[in-house]
Structures are given as structure tokens and as C-alpha cells.
Write a structure and sequence with these properties.
The structure holds 2 protein chains of 2 kinds. Helix content of chain A is 74%, strand content 2%. By secondary structure, chain A is mainly alpha-helical. Chain A has one domain: Orthogonal Bundle (MetI-like fold). In chain A, strand 1 and strand 2 form a beta hairpin. Chain B is mainly alpha-helical. Chain B is 78% helix and 0% strand. Classes of the chains: A mainly alpha, B mainly alpha. Chains A and B meet through helix 1, helix 6, helix 8, helix 10 and helix 11 of A and helix 3, helix 4, helix 5, helix 9 and helix 11 of B.
Chain lengths: 282, 249
């Protein structure tokens, strides 16, 4: 019981000066700075998701059946296989593919014979990834996984575009590409945005998984800073404060969701201006 | 041929870990479903405080990553260990991933399911409720006989999605909670096998196959249930689509 009492008084006891000093020390500055990784991965992942989503939706509506089949497989694979698996698998597979390519030029029979482990083929072919590389890989992976969801949303939205618009465009002699880009894609946003908002929320939430790819993101820092902190000179600085750090992250993500929701609402309103629907009273 | 034997060996090795994923899913889904009914009714209630509490619970758990929820709840439970669980002598139960994992998953799926059920609840045709009222049904009977059957039919496709995504989310349990002895789920075991021979394609594909097979089984069984739910509505089962509304995590 005494131990518990010491824990709580340690948490609420120190004065304001302590808190200001504590929350602005070097490690905390690094913690705040690591928010950039979350935001970069979210924005880049979202952009890639939009790109892959557009490609996937286009493939699903294609008249060429192998492309249509590919689009079907792509948009449905995320329903059967967890996103976490892709997020772990894709960067590893990409790294190994690059290493296999490097091995073709960098390895000699002697270096291959000198290699003990199963991978890489030789020590020279080893590709050491830093945070920027992992961040890029994570963004592409997020884009691939959530692009499949976006493709689902967008192919539905493209089908929702009034057929008369497409027929009129064809009658005016627009090329197939122009009909697709200037009419289908141009008009689908009003229908796609609510669904894309959901996909964006998924991307945001998936950025919490960056620490699985050895990126020192907010989750990793929260875990590091919250660990019981002892030092030989000062004794116990604090006990296990991880819950407080994770609570902050919990609130941070809810805030991110809230802001995104508001942004998407105004975007949707903008995309739907002028449409004859119940939401737009004359 | 060696590839085939390697795949078969992996299938055998990952069979037991797959049971852990299934356990986590099936331990949390019924609890989540039950609580979600009350939460959805709470969000639709006329009582202001009740409505606000239910809505904010749903918003908080749908608006933050499950990964963070796992870390947060685990560290909170851990912080209470010395003052609460240890003196009560239940620290071994509370901190066990086989107990804590389903608890966190249930807290999460409750929010998602409640949102789905709430959406369905607000889509029940008003005329049916008015008719039931005119016939003198009590509020309890009205819910059981009129609202609930309608609501569950509307919610079922989206709820199926939620069940599959919850099954996928069970991968996060052992990324956050301690792995005890040989209690490994699919991703933990696949990662361990990967560390041994660095064959990423083999191990992760076989783990993916297990997820794919289980997800397909869930979709098929759920489709049969939906067919039964809509057996009086010709053509409804054919219109069965996995809509992308709100069940996503």
C-alpha cells in the first residue's frame, strides 16, 4: 500500500516548475517532433491510397476482362487478409527483392560462401534501411492496403454518375479517356467523398502501427518515456507512467479524427454545391 | 516439391496459432454484441445524459486506433497492479492476455457494433412502430417483435464486415500484450518462423491463407444466417452486399 501511495504522490506531488522542466526536456522534444512521422505517413499514405484507389476503380470498370479480374482481386483481398499482415509483409518483401537484385552484381562466389545466415545472399548485398526508407515503404504500403478500400468506394461512386452524362459525352464525340477523366472522375467526387472520409480515418488509425516498422514514432516514444525512470544520482524520478502517455495519444488520435471529420464535411459540401439533392435547399 | 512440403509444414505449424486468433475473436464478439445493443439504444434514447455518454463512448473508441487502445488499457491495468490486483490476488487473471485481450477487443467492437446497430435502429420504418403502438404493444414487446427483427436485418451485412475486421484485429493482441510460453497467434508465429530462415514470402503467405480461409468461412456462415433472416423477402439474399458504411476500423 505504501508503494502505491508513493506512486500517486510522485505523480501529482511536484510543483509546476518540475512539470515545465520535465515536459520540455530533450526526450520530450524528440517525442513531440516524432509527430511528423505520423503526419507524413498519413498524408503520403492517403495520397498513395487515392492514386491506387483510382487505378483500382478504373481497372474494375475496364472493358478488358483480365484488368477487371485484377481489379476485383485487388479490391477484395483486404477483406480476407488483415492490414497488419500487409504492413509487415510488404516492406520486408521489398527489402529482400532489392537485396536479391543487389546480390546479382555485388556478390561473388567467395562472399556467398562466406555468408553464414540464410539471408542476405552475401554481406555486401545487405541493404540497411533508415527511418526515411521505412517511412517511404510504410506510406506505399498504407497506400496499397487502403487504396483497395478507396477503389471499392470510387468504383461505386463512378457507377453512381448519371448515365445520361456519360451518354451525352460520348454523343459529343469525346474519346474514351476524356469520357473517363472529364466526366466520370470529374463527377464521382460528390458520391465518393463520404466513403473516402472513412478510408482516410482508417489511414490515420493505421499510422499508429509505424513503430512495427522500426520508426521511432509517437507510440515508441510514449512507451520509452513512460517506462519507470531510475537514475543512480537522483533515485526514482517516476514510476510506470506509460498509461498517461498512451492516454495523451488516445486523445491525440480522437482530435485528429474530429478535425478530419470537419474537413471532409466541408469538402463534401463543396463537391455537392449545385446538385439537386435534399441537403441543398434552393 | 520442396516448396510444397515447406508450405505443408507451415500449414501444420500455424494451425495451433490460428486457434488463438479464433479464440480472441469468438471470446469478444458475443460480449461486444450484447453491450452494443444497449449502447445503440442508449445513443438513440431521449434521455440527454444517457445519449451523450453512449455517443461519446462510441466516438472515442471508433475515433482512435485499436493499437493505442490496447497499449492504454494494458498500461492502466498494469499501473493498478500493486494497489488493486495484487492485494486482491487476481493479478494473474487480470493481466493474462487470454483475459485482457478479449476484454479490450470487446470494448472496441462494442463501439463499432453499436454504431452499426444505431444506424439500423434509426432506419426502421416509422409506420411499423406506429402500427405496433396502435395495436397496444408494450414498449418491451414493441422492441422485441417489431424493432429488433427489422433492425438486425438492416444491420447484418455491415455487422458481418465488423466481425471479419475484428477477427483481423486479433493480430494486434500479441503486438501489445506479453506472449506467455507457447501462446502465439498467427502473426507472432509467422514472425518467429521468419526470424529463423528469412523466408518472408512463405511464412506470411501461409498466415495470410489462414486469415483468408477463416474470413471466407465467416462470410459464408453469415450469408446463410442472412438468408434465414430474410427468408420472407424474395431477392433480399441476392442483394447481399458487403457495404462499406461504418464497420471499418
Amino acid at each position: 500500500m505504501a508503494e502505491a501511495q508513493a506512486y500517486w504522490s510522485g505523480l501529482f506531488g511536484p510543483d509546476l516548475g518540475f512539470w515545465i522542466a520535465y515536459l520540455t526536456n530533450g526526450k520530450h522534444i524528440a517525442f513531440y517532433a516524432s509527430v511528423q512521422f505520423t503526419l507524413i505517413a498519413a498524408l503520403a499514405g492517403g495520397a498513395f491510397a487515392l492514386l491506387f484507389g483510382l487505378l483500382g476503380a478504373g481497372a474494375r470498370l475496364s472493358g478488358f476482362w483480365p484488368l477487371r479480374g485484377l481489379g476485383f482481386v485487388y479490391t477484395n483481398m483486404v477483406r480476407g487478409i488483415p492490414d497488419v499482415l500487409f504492413i509487415l509483409f510488404f516492406p520486408l518483401a521489398f527489402e529482400q527483392a532489392v537485396e536479391a537484385l543487389r546480390a546479382l552484381t555485388l556478390c561473388s562466389p567467395e562472399t556467398i560462401a562466406a555468408q553464414n545466415g540464410a539471408w542476405p545472399p552475401c554481406a555486401e548485398a545487405n541493404w540497411i534501411l533508415g527511418t526515411p526508407e521505412y517511412l517511404a515503404l510504410a506510406s506505399v504500403t498504407l497506400g496499397l492496403v487502403y487504396g483497395a478500400f478507396a477503389a471499392n468506394v470510387m468504383s461505386g461512386a463512378m457507377r453512381a454518375v448519371a448515365p445520361g452524362q456519360i451518354e451525352a459525352a460520348r454523343a459529343f464525340g469525346f474519346s474514351a479517356a476524356d469520357v473517363f477523366w472529364r466526366f466520370r472522375v470529374r463527377q464521382m467526387w460528390a458520391y465518393a467523398l463520404p466513403g473516402l472520409s472513412n478510408v482516410w480515418m482508417l489511414v490515420i488509425k493505421a499510422t499508429s502501427l509505424l513503430s512495427l516498422l522500426q520508426i521511432a514514432d509517437i507510440v515508441l516514444w510514449a512507451n520509452r518515456l513512460g517506462q519507470p525512470n531510475f537514475s543512480r544520482s537522483a533515485g526514482v524520478i517516476h514510476g510506470d507512467w506509460r498509461w498517461a502517455y498512451y492516454l495523451v495519444l488516445f486523445i491525440f488520435y480522437i482530435g485528429l479524427t474530429y478535425v478530419s471529420e470537419k474537413a471532409f464535411l466541408s469538402l463534401t459540401r463543396r463537391a455537392r454545391r449545385g446538385m439537386a439533392i435534399v441537403g441543398n435547399a434552393p | 516439391m520442396t516448396q510444397l512440403t515447406a508450405v505443408l509444414a507451415d500449414i501444420a505449424l500455424l494451425a495451433k496459432p490460428a486457434l488463438f486468433n479464433l479464440y480472441f475473436a469468438f471470446a469478444s464478439i458475443p460480449i461486444g454484441f450484447l453491450f452494443a445493443i444497449f449502447l445503440a439504444l442508449g445513443k438513440a434514447s431521449r434521455h440527454g445524459l444517457l445519449r451523450r455518454l453512449s455517443s461519446s463512448y462510441i466516438y472515442m473508441f471508433r475515433g482512435s486506433p485499436l493499437f493505442i487502445q490496447f497499449f492504454m488499457i494494458y498500461s492502466m491495468v498494469l499501473a493498478l497492479n500493486l494497489s488493486v490486483w495484487k492485494p486482491l490476488g487476481i493479478d494473474g487473471i487480470v493481466l493474462n492476455p487470454l483475459v485482457l485481450g478479449p476484454v479490450v477487443l470487446a470494448l472496441n467492437t462494442t463501439a463499432y457494433t453499436a454504431e452499426i446497430l444505431f444506424g439500423a435502429l434509426t432506419s426502421v420504418p416509422r409506420g411499423e412502430i406506429e402500427a405496433a403502438r396502435a395495436f397496444g404493444f408494450s414498449p418491451g414487446t414493441r422492441f422485441r417483435r417489431i424493432v429488433w427483427p427489422h433492425m438486425i436485418r438492416l444491420a447484418w451485412p455491415a455487422y458481418t464486415n465488423e466481425v471479419v475486421f475484428l477477427f483481423h484485429a486479433t493480430t494486434l493482441v500479441y503486438f501489445t500484450l506479453p506472449v506467455i510460453d507457447d501462446q502465439k497467434d498467427l502473426m507472432t508465429k509467422a514472425g518467429e518462423l521468419f526470424q529463423r530462415d528469412f523466408n518472408v514470402l512463405l511464412h506470411y503467405s501461409v498466415a495470410g491463407l489462414y486469415f483468408l480461409a477463416c474470413s471466407l468461412a465467416i462470410f459464408v456462415v453469415s450469408g446463410l444466417i442472412y438468408r434465414r433472416l430474410t427468408r420472407h423477402m424474395p431477392g433480399a439474399a441476392q442483394r447481399w452486399r458487403f457495404t462499406l458504411i461504418s464497420p471499418l476500423r
